[in-house]
Design goal:
single chain; 364 residues; mainly beta; Porin; two-stranded antiparallel ribbon; 3 helices; 9% helix; 47% strand
Length: 364
Amino acid sequence: MKISHRILLFALIISSVSFAGPFGYKEGRWIFKAKESYFSTHRNFDKQGLTKDLTTDQSLTLFTTTASITYDVSNKISLFSGLDAVYANSNGYDFQRTRFSPTDFKAGSDFLLWSSFVDLIPEFVVTVPILTVDPNTDDAILSEGVLEFRGGSYLSKRFSFLSTYLYLGYAMRNDGRSSLMPYDFQIFKSFKFVQLSAGIWGYESLQDDAKTDIPADRNIVLARVNASSQRFYSVNPSLTEVGGSIGFTLGSEMFTRLGYSHTLTGVNTAYGDTFWLSLSYILGGATKSRFYESKRNQEMGSADFTPETYQEEKVFDEPERTVINTEEDFSTDSQSKAPVTVKLRTAKPDTKSKQKRKLKKRTR
């Protein structure tokens, strides 16, 4: 394999979006992240928003592996790229289907546009499908399989006792799919080595799907290969999820996080639970750091950290002093010794005690 091909393969492997936006940037910093999530469902939300069990004990299980790389170009701009890979286990009414494959490549940028009592961070992301959906397929569907352009902005605010941000965006999709309005609200509370987070996020369909009047065309495919689950490939979906996580610092450059989310409401989408675990490595971070994770949305599984550096105070100054060595070596001819440079620790003079002595002399 050529070196250029290896570099391209490496870049694809270490991807899936992670970002540093809402809580700061650090020029020259790299963030590498790996994440594994588990989703299971045996129900759907119908077009009225009511939950409905999948027939004949059908179910869909998804294991999603994501990897990401983020680079802070400056103290105001970051670039990111990512790759998702999915393993699906579809228990249908006729037989079980399993499938594994990379699904989507993502790339984008966010930047600090305005900073005052709140920070305004615009973001642009493009998603390129590695797999598309063939209506005649007999394999499980692993993702939406569409080209997507998304733009949005974060409003973030750091208080003395917690940090928070709000995201609102717009996503255009090809293949006749409905356009989406993603949203996300998160709260973070950080301690010395632990961080807690909670939030609510999701999306709403705006422009109608090309199959709005004939949703059966999609539902037939989903019944055949995805156990009738509407996790992907549904008509005019909407979704709201709630969740939380706990994170731990592992030394000065690593961070791990365990999270859970639950589908709260939806239309033409799957009802289920997600568990996930992530590990992040920061290259170019400080020896003493506090970490703040930022999450774009549940689909991209974002997590980022902003190290805040602290310098240790020196108790003593250590100036260089020249000392004359006056010792003589009596085993040889007496010779004057050359000056030797050594380091001495000198404490700062006690100016207060000197002032007290002067006052005593005056009173006498």
